[in-house]
Amino acid sequence: MTSTTRNYLIRGVTLPDGTSTSLLLRDGVIAALGADAADGSSDAVALDATGLIALPGLVDLHTHLREPGREDAETVWSGTRAAALGGFTCVHAMANTMPVSDTAGVVEQVWRLGRDAGWVDVRPVGAVTVGLGGERLAELGAMADSAAAVRVFSDDGVCVDDPVLMRRALEYVKAFDGVIAQHAQEPRLTTGAVMNEGEVSAELGLTGWPAVAEESIIARDVLLAEHVGSRVHICHLSTAGSVDIVRWAKARGIQVTAEVTPHHLLLTDETVRGYDPQFKVNPPLRTAADVLAVRQGLADGTIDIVATDHAPHPSEDKDCEFDAAAFGMTGLETALSVVIESMVLADDVEFGWEDVARTMSAAPAAIGRVADQGRPLAVGEPAHLTLVDPDARWPVVPRALRTASDNTPFAGRELPGRVVATFYGGRATVLAGEPIEVGA
Amino acid sequence: MRHLLSAKDLSHDEAVAILDTAATMAATQQREIKKLPPLRGKTIVNLFFEDSTRTRISFEAAAKRLSADVINFSAKGSSVSKGESLKDTAQTLQAMGADGVIIRHAASGAPYRLATSGWIDAPVINAGDGKHQHPTQALLDAYTMRRHLQGENAGGADLSGFRVLVVGDVLHSRVARSNVDLLHTLGAHVTLVSPPTLLPVGVDRWPCAVSYDLDGAIAQGVDAIMMLRVQRERMSAAGGGFFPSPQEYSRKFGLDRNRLAALGPDALVMHPGPMNRGLEISAEAADSAQAVILEQVTNGVAVRMAVLYMLLGGSEGATGGAA
Amino acid sequence: MTSGTPARSGTERVVLDSSDISRALTRIAHEIIERNNGSADVVLLGIPTRGADLARRLGERVLQADERTDPLADVVGSIDITLHRDDLRRHPVRAIEPTTIPPAGVDDKIVVLVDDVLFSGRTVRAALDAVSDVGRPRAIQLAVLVDRGHRELPIRPDYVGKNLPTAAAEHVRVRLAEIDGVDEVAIDRTIGEDV
Fold this sequence. Notes:
heterotrimer; A: alpha/beta; Urease, subunit C, domain 1; TIM Barrel; 2 domains; 5-stranded antiparallel sheet; 5-stranded parallel sheet; 19 strands; 28% helix; B: alpha/beta; Rossmann fold; 4-stranded parallel sheet; 37% helix; disordered C terminus
């Protein structure tokens, strides 16, 4: 941690509710707003934020940082720097590392790597089952009690498909207010599957991943959560049917939350026609009708949050046959822009900047029980925020992104909205769109 | 036409031009001297990631009869089994000076990747990729049908109005996909006949009819019936459990004596091989006078000669004068 | 190619008309019979497309002059040279023309290759290769309607309808009734694509 955190006066910035104001960041908190901010700013670095929008620091509930084990794809340092550039101040590091984050030792290691890097708050996700094996519970309590204070548990990448094991996990985490984040994928219905099952897969001769394989698990798990009175979180929901099931469950009062990824808000299975593995992801890109349904679900609150499922892979894992390629896409640096493109700028859904703040900051922090993240931009709150130029447009060039891997599906596209600055605990991690290292 | 990746990519005129060229190639194969010079000095690589002796030999014969040098590269495995990656294999071939690559691969889309990823410059011919396409098989099937249904001097003709049944495991079949696309382009009416479990979700959008009833489909009148190979292991739970037993499959979807009689003597009986006699086709049907299964093999060489000539016989692989 | 009235540009000069062509073919037919002591073993192979039509016309005249009763198909055929060209890789792919060989074949026959224009000689060279693929004739002779000079290979015709001195850049247009709707040979001075 740097000993000389500077103070910043951010002038003329627009808040999510549309009001224009100034913000004084001092000693890691928002010290003053409006006219008061300028009064107390004699020692502060002044930034002209006219035309920029301030959002509370973004919180990602679903990030693959790959360390330990796959440092060729990403490290905690490189991944969290990419997160800061994408406007994030907190990420949840998924458990499918090598070794798997299924013990207090591994989650604490990841947590410390994050703290040392200093780009964002790294909240490790613990595995639900030992080695993601789906056979017996990992020591969830030990991970909860560790320095990493794990609250989100997930076997992401693998579904907890054994209903008894899933019931036990849902019950067990109630003891420390944890949540099971389910990767909903019925394994027998998706053997060998590499893309959405439908018209396109039939033509391309690629093995299909039917929507029902996701929906049936979600249906089962919301009913299990209801039965045991626990909360359940649905990772990367991708189908229209899933939206309907979650909507029904919420109406029934079940404690279910759900996330959608940026890529599922924008891309369809038509992109796979070129057999380019950059479009291979799990769950797969679905049909246009599914994309519309998840966008409407996000707008009406059925889907609570956007989570990136940032999944970096080295180029050799993508520069090959579609069947042989790894699943996954990077997303930290493009997430906000894709949400602006697919939701804020779209005519067919109502989605404003307050919705962005809710779905990308407040709600994910609440699900992850991260007390000091996702807070409103108000006096006395922690100075986690990001400044966005909503009118900027930028071309996505894989090599120009700071994540250690190049597997973005948005290469060659021009996206709206650019993160200009990010402040994590009052420290500028990004200024003028460039990362600022700790101590710099 | 720079590559041949999918029967779907062929326009009506391109497809007819290939069939016409195949007819002239076939005529040269009646001669004592079968070798022709147009690909002299060119190197063609047979890149087979999946065993298929008959397809490889057919392409090899076609290339050699056009005087090309042929390198057989059998790369069973590939990156899937931690061998050399497709990209590295392709770039190695490029470095060796391959003028054309014929690829067979278990992964759908592998030829497409080879042709479009910038790994190599040479024209790519798909010799069968996973469950996707096998365009030269469809071309040789169409050629065989045209020869019988339109006569020897069928130059310029297509298959307008002819009724073709494609029977069997459509779900796993690149032959079925290629044939539906090409036969549709050539004007034929195609009906897929299969148990529902062996049809892909989304088949209703294909340019063909679908039936679960072989006898009913035959009763509508058939000019050619193509029996697809059905793997016995598809029956087991491990193989997907697609049908209860070979006996039931054979009873409902096999070409037996009664169905052969119902077809009438003029309907062509076709099979891409290798056959499971007694499962999808009875010996009686396979050996009947109306079976053209061996002729399909013979025609395969002429069709592949035509494709190789049209892709590699000129400067840019453009079909400038083909009309 | 469509039949009908030819589009003749203003830079063209007609050098042979219909009756000139007819007379030339009749003369060549008689020369073939004379040179070969009759036409018993003669097979006429035209080089598509116009050479094939000329071969058919020559065949009619040979049969008539020699008072033979064979069907025309027994003495006239066509030979595609596309696959034997030496300039294949310099051009887009060319369509292959039909090869039809009379039923008796060409072994030990006297094959007369027939083409419309003799220019560089490369087409004839390709035709010689093509003929050797279908058999071994006793002799191969060459009949052309027009010899325009500018040979690039050691090839000379045995029968010539007309020697036509030309500049290399000029074009000789042969039109035949079967294809073009009219019989004529013209020289075109415009620079353009050669045939």
